Amino acid sequence: MTTQPLVFIDGDQGTTGLQIHQRLHGRTDLQLLTLPEADRKNPTRRAEAINSCDIAILCLPDAAAREAVAAIHSSAVRVIDASSAHRTDPQWVYGFPEMDAAQVARIANARRVSNPGCYPTGAVALLRPLVQAGLLPADHPLTIHAVSGYSGGGRARVQAHEGPEAASAPAFQIYGLQLEHKHPPEIARHAGLSQRPFFLPSYGAFRQGIALTIGLHLRQLPPGTQAEHLHACLQQHYADATFVEVMTPATAEAAEHLDPQALNGTNQLRLGVFSNTQHGQVLLTAVFDNLGKGASGAAVQNLDLMLGGAT
Fold first, then answer.
1. Distance CA 70, CA 54 (A)
2. 299: three-class secondary structure by DSSP
3. Among the four 121, 160, 187, 291, which has the fewest Cβ within 10 Å?
4. Which residues are catalytic?
5. What global pTM score does this model have?
């Protein structure tokens, strides 16, 4: 790798690509390569660019991401794929550094890294430590609800909310009603689940941010499991994580609402454990920026690891 590694962003005009470009703008430890508009759909120019770089960041639809990877013939090229094309591929390293103690090293040494999906980032962060600790059975019937800012729907949804017809854009909408959303397999694989979780996503009339929730009944968990055990497990798992924080029990008890926009513009992920002892119910929560830790921020975090930078 050169003194200043060359980073090619393929698809830098989409919501994720634009944010990555902004986050990397002004950095002096790397060089950015982007194609002029006339060449963005030219397969020859794109192949030349991707084979000339040190690390390629793919911000493309799934099919285009697969085509881009197939065009690589240089063994020196490393890839971060922000699409969902390779998130369950065992030959790709999953780009969630905080998932376990060895993941940072795996990402740092990887040739191929698949950036996590926005919703799966919150779900996996909450569920994986609990499953590994035996506090949540791998076959537990999980229901995951989440609301994202409309930027999660890409340029088309941004245009619907910010373009000429913005006044008629819906304030809130639930989608994925056929229950065939692409995220459950990713969540199941990386959270360590043996059963497909029930996942219901939605969009709100705000640009970015996510609030994800998972409800649990204590009577369905291993005998003796209480909310404090779940909190302690998460707190221990993320004790040294720079970008993941776990709300204290006192903070959770005092909270009256979750603001999905609270961490916008950051790469932070905030987890919470809320409980009602009388009813034996627990609510697991995750709040983060769908364009931050849910996409662009995570890609830059992974890039820095691959460049040998901070965790």
1. 16
2. helix
3. 160
4. 118
5. 0.95
